[in-house]
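Technical annex, item 7. During the second reporting period the consortium partners agreed on a shared format for inverse folding records so that results from different sites could be compared directly. Each record opens with the tokenized structure and is followed by the designed sequence. A conforming record, contributed by the partner at site C, is shown below for reference.
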């Protein structure tokens, strides 16, 4: 989990860049509340505007000394609600809601009191771990593993001795077209596939020792097992055929005796 946190810390920094905007991530269909960072609305006649992408005024709040501010809605009325006097609630967030939301306060001059870079994301799809190739000797086990989602796939190779394992090509990380992270790495002698974004994550894990053990049967052992199965099937078929033949013969004999 530590590796997951560190990776997303770097990703969030790249997403935020050098901007003073506060990043906010919300799952599709959920609500989110943005506040004005304690901006004062007690001065009679002061105005607080909530804007979308610096231009569209969503809500204008006219402050009334000692009373709740007067609320005037403008753009995208169905998606917004004012709660706790000045906080902006975005309802049932959709991908189109993503963008910059800012609150400005105007009294003698206009000041930006809060800015948020809101990003709406879908939960990530499940990730699947598949073992593509295993090669065993008496001293080591080499394996190739693939991590796949609905839209992306990455692979990596591992080599394990009696006491330790290593990832031959190092941790593999890919940013998918959906801007999710797909990772494959080694942790505590386990191969881990991780698919994540800012609001959700899924993983699939397999112990390296178990993978190598399950794929350690020699061709002779496999052939022996197959031969046993074939023999059992043939014997069952023979018994069934004999039973059917005996039943038919018995019915015919009874018919002949009754006719005689």
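Designed sequence (site C submission):
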């Amino acid at each position: 989990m530590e590796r997951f946190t560190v990776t997303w810390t770097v990703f969030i920094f790249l997403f935020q860049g050098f901007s003073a905007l506060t990043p906010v991530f919300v799952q599709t269909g959920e609500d989110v509340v943005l506040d004005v960072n304690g901006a004062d609305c007690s001065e009679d006649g002061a105005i607080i505007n909530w804007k979308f992408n610096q231009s569209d005024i969503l809500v204008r709040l006219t402050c009334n000394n000692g009373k709740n501010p007067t609320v005037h809605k403008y753009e995208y009325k169905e998606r917004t609600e004012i709660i706790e006097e000045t906080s902006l609630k975005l309802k049932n967030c959709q991908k189109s809601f993503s963008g910059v939301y800012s609150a400005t306060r105007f009294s003698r001059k206009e000041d930006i009191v809060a800015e948020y870079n809101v990003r709406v994301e879908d939960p990530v799809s499940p990730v699947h771990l598949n073992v593509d190739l295993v090669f065993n000797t008496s001293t080591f086990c080499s394996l190739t593993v693939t991590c796949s989602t609905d839209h992306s796939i990455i692979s990596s190779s591992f080599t394990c001795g009696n006491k330790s394992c290593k990832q031959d090509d190092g941790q593999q990380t890919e940013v998918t077209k959906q801007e999710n992270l797909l990772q494959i790495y080694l942790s505590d002698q386990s191969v881990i596939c991780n698919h994540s974004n800012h609001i959700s994550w899924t993983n699939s894990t397999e112990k390296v020792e178990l993978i190598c053990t399950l794929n350690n049967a020699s061709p002779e052992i496999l052939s022996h097992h197959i031969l046993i199965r074939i023999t059992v099937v043939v014997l069952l078929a023979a018994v069934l055929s004999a039973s059917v033949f005996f039943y038919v013969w018995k019915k015919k004999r009874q018919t002949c005796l009754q006719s005689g």
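The longest strand covers residues 110-121. Residues 34 and 232 are 70 Å apart (CA to CA). All partners now use this format for quarterly exchanges.
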